[in-house]
């Protein structure tokens, strides 16, 4: 059976500089794992028994980044499902898009992660080594830009 995980692509809007495009003021939160290859990823994790996918995404975000659901605004209309093998087994990861209500909100990492960064799209894609994660970040960014 495929492993199933869910998470949130968290973003914040900085105070826009005069004449800057809104999209230039968006930063994405990536966490660096404290295990394995120390890759960078949005908060995500495995679905617990009896939990629905979105509950998992919010719980994992709280556990891994210290962000409560009440500190986030879920962006309607965006959901991305990724499929890839991990150690020879199929894995499904579902992401939603969520904005922190206060761009100064403190991030509190769990022991699963050793660092975090708020990154503009281009840098976020450099940090996220996997092509499907890069494509997901770009797609989420396009989705946000189309809503402006």
Automatic annotation (TrEMBL):
Span of domain Nudix hydrolase: 1-141
Enzyme Commission number(s) of this protein: 3.6.1.17
Co-factor requirement: a divalent metal cation
Lineage: Eukaryota, Metazoa, Chordata, Craniata, Vertebrata
Reactions listed under catalytic activity: a 5'-end CoA-ribonucleoside in mRNA + H2O = a 5'-end phospho-adenosine-phospho-ribonucleoside in mRNA + (R)-4'-phosphopantetheine + 2 H(+); P(1),P(4)-bis(5'-guanosyl) tetraphosphate + H2O = GMP + GTP + 2 H(+); a 5'-end FAD-phospho-ribonucleoside in mRNA + H2O = a 5'-end phospho-adenosine-phospho-ribonucleoside in mRNA + FMN + 2 H(+)
Enzyme class, broadest EC rank: hydrolase
Full protein name: Bis(5'-nucleosyl)-tetraphosphatase [asymmetrical]
Transmembrane segments: none
Keyword Hydrolase in record: yes
GO molecular function: bis(5'-nucleosyl)-tetraphosphatase (asymmetrical) activity; nucleotide binding
Residues spanning the signal sequence: none
UniProt key word Hydrolase: yes
Family annotation (InterPro entries): NUDIX_hydrolase-like_dom_sf, NUDIX_hydrolase_CS, NUDIX_hydrolase_dom, Nudix_hydrolase_domain, Tetra_PHTase
SUPFAM superfamilies (UniProt xref): Nudix
GO annotation terms (biological process): AMP biosynthetic process; ATP biosynthetic process
PROSITE patterns per the UniProt record, alphabetical: NUDIX, NUDIX_BOX
Protein family according to the UniProt entry: Belongs to the Nudix hydrolase family.
Function: Catalyzes the asymmetric hydrolysis of diadenosine 5',5'''-P1,P4-tetraphosphate (Ap4A) to yield AMP and ATP. Exhibits decapping activity towards FAD-capped RNAs and dpCoA-capped RNAs in vitro.
Keywords from the UniProt entry: Hydrolase, Nucleotide-binding
């Amino acid at each position: 059976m495929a492993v199933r995980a869910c998470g949130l692509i968290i973003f914040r809007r900085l105070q826009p500089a005069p004449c800057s495009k809104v999209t230039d003021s968006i930063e994405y939160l990536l966490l660096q794992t404290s295990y394995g290859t120390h890759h960078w990823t949005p908060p995500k994790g495995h679905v617990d028994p009896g939990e629905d996918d979105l509950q998992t995404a919010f719980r994992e975000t709280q556990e891994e980044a210290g962000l409560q659901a009440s500190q986030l605004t879920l962006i309607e209309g965006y959901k991305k499902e990724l499929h890839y093998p991990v150690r020879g087994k199929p894995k499904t990861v579902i992401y939603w898009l969520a904005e922190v209500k206060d761009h100064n909100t403190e991030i509190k990492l769990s022991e699963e992660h050793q660092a975090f960064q708020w990154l503009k799209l281009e840098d976020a894609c450099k940090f996220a080594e996997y092509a499907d994660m890069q494509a997901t970040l770009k797609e989420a960014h396009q989705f946000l830009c189309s809503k402006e």
